[in-house]
């Protein structure tokens, strides 16, 4: 059968047959397959019984090594129980020091998404190497009779070494899936490993082998495809790229890193696409869909597997011995070690972040306890001594970890900075060779969904306008897990050596003799011959990216309006959509003559220009190569109807069909811009801005943590409340500073005010020395209603979270015009105040309600 998008499929046919034959047949296949899997899910929706004999086998590719086993045994014979427990605990660099490693003999450290040397927001190769050296010296210190055991230093290098300034940023995995090119994954893995080693680190938490079935999930872009077969094809190649091929001298040599297949298991199958949620599916679906990538990864010798935050039919993976031990280590013969995720063990029933023998007994060998490591170490040590955790389980876990360290040559390597790649890190990190691989990946990942009238490829000798919020925005085109955890709030200057999409187009157009204007708002000095509008999702990571439906920017149509405005001027438009996942885009597809799914291409924006533009001589240098690895939705309601574009769809320049007008009813009813939810998990909800305002009145963006006002009056840092960095802590160094949430357009809250609705803040008071704190709503220049909270909050015990509600009528009483609210949430306090806030939203149920009648 010809692949979708080929001339032997439906793209080259008339629009009538395109609709009636190609889409209908492909959709029928997908619907039938989905129905079959769904039926299996329903049959055993609450079953947690595992039958290992039914699971696929894998073959550990490393033969028994007597010399290695002797080294492990000899070392373990010298280790105290304290030494052994230390190997089971992993701490984050923001919460652990080299002295701590020296004292507690910890086996590993990690750098979380926002964790950088010295607590900085960003870090370069030299800073990473210096920190790695400091930790290595501490781990190898033998004073006091300690046993020297080198550290594993892990980081989420998930689309290149995305935690280092100047590194090559490859397209995110959802883009790479569209390339259908396993060998390219191998090359990307090799390049990523070299850049990680050049900064002194030796372990990456990659590859992600999720098989996302609901792209409302905020981590969908970490998955290569919804098709388990494609994920399986990529798994082994990516592992071999990162680690080197087993049986060759390159395996785990000094230019490769330890890889970690993640997240075991079914993180991409949770109900409603909720991150850290529950996969309510049958064992068959768990086995055939979500486990597909693990046997190939094990066959390739992956040295670690990361357990998932999620649950399977109500049972947390971090406590699922049947899956971690019986299936993964038994049936699949995995002989590396299992590492936990960020305090995920604390979600297991009966556990806390500082105490979880259940996870270790279930088969997790190393617990990731970023900020809870000290308490976890102490509790685990006591439980080993009491027998609650059998010594045999501890010895098994320690032996697995030590084998990996020996295989990786860590005992012989010396200081991380002495690695040959680290010695020339300036030439390795972001090297031209690596950027060339990334640029090729961009070219291969672009999927052409519409090209009516053959608008593409463009003549570079013309006058071209590059417009849209993503036209000259490297952060937007790179997505989450880019320099910071969420990847937001960054400037192009933070990406030395990178190129935006607009800059890439401008470079080639100018070289060919054409002219370019780049303007986010679409403003132009002279009518362009064609406009390329680059737009898309704001960066996000993990649960911060969960969405309730497949609408794009609900209630905010400025991208669509820009396309329509240009079309109204008679300017043909090529829409370039930046996203981590397919979304309902019927209106935008209709409005533009050509529509390109560019996903999240990373640092090499020039790769987009390579495909969109002809050469100066009028030839096609690079055709479209990408084919969808995720079906494109027909409706904004997840799972409603057949796909608009099925798996494998993608046009080339040889296809000349016309895409008919698409229906513009989303399937979603009601107002979609949240009018009652302003701050969620420490971040502003989409459609709202977040600023810190100093005592001098100057504003600073608050969308990236840490942040501070220019006068130092107010500082914001991230902290964990119920999940990783889901709250913000504010410290006032001067009075009259405040944090402000601003609506994109004024809101009328009069109805809610009359209905006794509350503005509820989820907060924790750490210090309130002057008892002066207030909450407010702003209604334009010189218009604000403030409600004093100091006396009520001062009576609260420090360090306790509570939800305090303020009736909206209190703000009206204080002078706010509730028909015209521009700032639905503002908070101020006096010098010395320290307050943590996780959420601000309208509601009717709070722990305490302020009585403004007094």
Automatic annotation (TrEMBL):
Record organism: Dyella jiangningensis
Q: What keywords tag this UniProt record?
A: Hydrolase
BP-aspect Gene Ontology terms: glucan catabolic process
Coiled-coil regions, chain positions: none
Domain (Glycoside hydrolase family 3 C-terminal) spans 446-653
InterPro entries from the UniProt entry: Cellulose_Degrad_GH3, Exop_C, GH, Glyco_hydro_3_C, Glyco_hydro_3_C_sf, Glyco_hydro_3_N, Glyco_hydro_3_N_sf
Question: Which stretches make up the Glycoside hydrolase family 3 N-terminal domain?
Answer: 80-404
User: What name is this protein filed under?
Assistant: 1,4-beta-D-glucan glucohydrolase
One GO molecular-function entry:
beta-glucosidase activity
Ranges where the ExoP galactose-binding-like domain occurs: 703-839
């Amino acid at each position: 059968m010809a692949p979708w998008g080929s001339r032997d499929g439906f793209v080259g046919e008339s629009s009538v047959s395109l609709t009636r034959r190609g889409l209908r047949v492909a959709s029928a296949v997908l619907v039938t397959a989905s129905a079959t899997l769904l039926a299996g899910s329903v049959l055993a929706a609450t079953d947690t019984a595992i039958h290992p004999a039914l699971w696929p086998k894998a073959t550990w590719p490393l033969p028994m090594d007597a010399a290695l086993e002797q080294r492990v045994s000899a070392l373990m014979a010298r280790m105290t129980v304290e030494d052994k427990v230390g190997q089971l605990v992993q701490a984050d660099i923001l919460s652990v020091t080299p002295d701590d490693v020296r004292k507690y003999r910890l086996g590993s450290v990690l750098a979380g998404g926002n964790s950088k040397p010295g607590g900085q927001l960003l870090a370069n190769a030299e800073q990473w190497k210096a920190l790695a050296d400091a930790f290595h010296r501490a781990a190898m210190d033998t004073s006091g009779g300690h046993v020297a055991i080198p550290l594993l230093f892990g980081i989420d290098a998930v689309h290149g070494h995305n935690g280092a300034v100047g590194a090559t940023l490859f397209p995110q995995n959802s883009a790479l899936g569209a390339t259908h090119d396993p060998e390219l994954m191998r090359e990307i893995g090799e390049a990523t490993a070299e850049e990680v080693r050049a900064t002194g680190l030796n372990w990456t938490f990659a590859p992600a082998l999720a098989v996302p079935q609901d792209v409302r999930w905020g981590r969908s872009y970490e998955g290569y495809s919804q098709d388990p077969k494609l994920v399986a094809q990529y798994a082994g190649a990516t592992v071999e790229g990162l680690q080197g091929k087993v049986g060759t001298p390159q395996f785990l040599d000094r230019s490769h890193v330890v890889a970690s297949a993640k997240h075991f298991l079914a993180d991409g199958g949770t109900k409603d696409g909720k991150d850290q949620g529950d996969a309510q599916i049958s064992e068959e679906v768990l086995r055939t869909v979500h486990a597909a990538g693990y046997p190939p990864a094990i066959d390739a010798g992956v040295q670690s597997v990361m357990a998932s935050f999620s649950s399977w039919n109500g049972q947390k993976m971090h406590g699922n011995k049947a899956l971690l031990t019986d299936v993964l280590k038994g049936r699949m013969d995995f002989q590396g070690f299992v590492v936990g995720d960020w305090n995920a063990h604390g979600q297991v029933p009966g556990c806390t972040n500082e105490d979880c023998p259940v996870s270790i007994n279930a088969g997790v060998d190393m617990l990731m306890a970023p900020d809870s490591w000290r308490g976890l170490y102490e509790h685990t040590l006591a439980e080993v001594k009491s027998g609650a955790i059998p010594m045999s389980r501890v010895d098994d876990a320690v032996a697995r970890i030590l084998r990996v360290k020996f295989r990786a040559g860590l005992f012989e390597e010396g200081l991380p900075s002495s690695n040959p790649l680290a010695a020339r890190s300036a030439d390795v990190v972001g090297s031209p060779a690596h950027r060339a691989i990334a640029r090729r990946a961009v070219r291969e990942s672009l999927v052409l969904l519409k090209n009516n009238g053959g608008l593409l490829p463009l003549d570079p000798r013309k006058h071209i306008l590059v417009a849209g919020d993503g036209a000259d925005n490297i952060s937007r085109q790179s997505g989450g897990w880019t320099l910071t955890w969420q990847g937001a709030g960054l400037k192009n200057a933070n990406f030395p050596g990178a190129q935006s999409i607009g800059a890439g187009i401008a470079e080639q157009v100018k070289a060919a003799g054409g002219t370019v204007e780049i303007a986010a708002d679409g403003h132009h000095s002279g009518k362009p011959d064609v406009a390329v509008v680059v737009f898309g999702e704001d960066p996000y990571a993990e649960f911060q990216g969960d969405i309730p439906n497949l609408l794009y920017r609900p209630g905010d149509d400025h991208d669509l309006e820009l396309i329509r405005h240009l079309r109204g001027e008679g300017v043909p438009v090529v829409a370039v959509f930046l996203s981590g996942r397919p979304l309902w885009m019927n209106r935008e597809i209709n409005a533009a003559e050509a529509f390109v799914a560019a996903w999240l291409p990373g640092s090499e924006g020039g790769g987009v220009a390579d495909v969109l533009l002809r050469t100066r001589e009028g030839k096609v240098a690079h055709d479209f190569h990408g084919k969808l690895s995720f079906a494109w939705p027909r409706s904004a309601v997840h799972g409603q109807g057949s796909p608009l574009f099925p798996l494998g769809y993608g046009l080339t320049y040889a296809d000349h069909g016309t895409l008919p007008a698409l229906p513009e009813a989303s399937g979603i009813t009601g107002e979609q811009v949240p009018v009652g939810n302003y701050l969620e998990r420490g971040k502003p909800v989409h459609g709202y801005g977040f600023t810190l305002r100093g005592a001098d009145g100057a504003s600073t963006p608050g969308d990236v943590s840490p942040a501070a006002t220019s006068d130092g009056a107010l500082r914001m840092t991230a902290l964990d409340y119920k999940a990783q960095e889901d709250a913000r802590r504010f410290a006032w160094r001067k009075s009259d500073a405040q944090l402000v949430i601003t609506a994109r357009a004024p809101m009328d809250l009069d109805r809610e005010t009359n209905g006794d609705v509350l503005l509820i803040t989820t907060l924790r008071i750490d210090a309130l020395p002057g008892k002066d704190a207030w909450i407010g709503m702003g209604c334009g220049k010189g218009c604000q209603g403030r409600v004093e909270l100091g006396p009520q909050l001062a009576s609260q015990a420090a360090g306790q979270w509570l939800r305090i509600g303020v009736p909206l009528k209190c703000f009206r009483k204080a002078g706010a015009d509730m028909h015209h609210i521009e700032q639905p949430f503002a908070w101020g306090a006096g010098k010395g105040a320290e307050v943590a806030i996780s959420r601000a939203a309208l509601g009717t149920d709070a722990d305490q309600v302020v009585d403004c009648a007094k």
